[in-house]
Amino acid sequence: xxxxKLNANPEKKxxxxxxxxxxxxAFSLAKAFATYDIADKTCLPPADNFQGVQMAKSxxxxxxxxxxxxxxxxxxxxxxxxxxxxxxxxxxxxxxKLTSAHIRLSASGRSEDTSYVAALPSGDAAExxxxxxxxxxxxxxxxxSKSPPDHGIEDVALLNPAVxxxxxxxxxxxxxxxxx
Length: 180
Fold this sequence. Notes:
With 180 residues, the protein is mostly beta strands. The protein has one helix spanning 122-125, and strands spanning 13-21, 29-38, 59-64, 66-68, 73-79, 96-106, 116-121, 129-136, 168-178. The protein has one domain. Helix content is 2%, strand content 39%. Strands 4-5-1-9-8 form a five-stranded antiparallel β-sheet, with no helix packed on it. A four-stranded antiparallel β-sheet has the order 3-2-6-7. A hairpin with a 4-residue loop joins strand 4 and strand 5.
């Protein structure tokens, strides 16, 4: 098993703000995460199983400290360089790349609650970018049984025209670079 280490002094940091508008109720569960992948897979060991599937760990999810701010907004700090580059498998240095920063919200945290996920892909998290995602209010707090996470709809043209504008709520994710 590879020994993945965090960078003791990350330098490339961003503030990620998750702003909720017109939510149909409160969210008692709010968690944020950053996902990282190894940028160049040549540092991984050769696949050594019958199917030829790479079994070495090449992705890592790091929980982020999430702070509730004004109104229905949450703020987290994410570092592009949070994971230390190292020779994990004896095949050369593995370089980690931030792939996304995301939040998961639910009414109570119960398994039957709808889980709302808003993610900012790495290119957007590393730049000053804003992304707004639309979610059906009618799925709050639950659809009645365990349902897959709702990742929202970014393209307004894809919204169901049978649902009036008041039937949607939004989560806007924005990123700003922190200067050292």
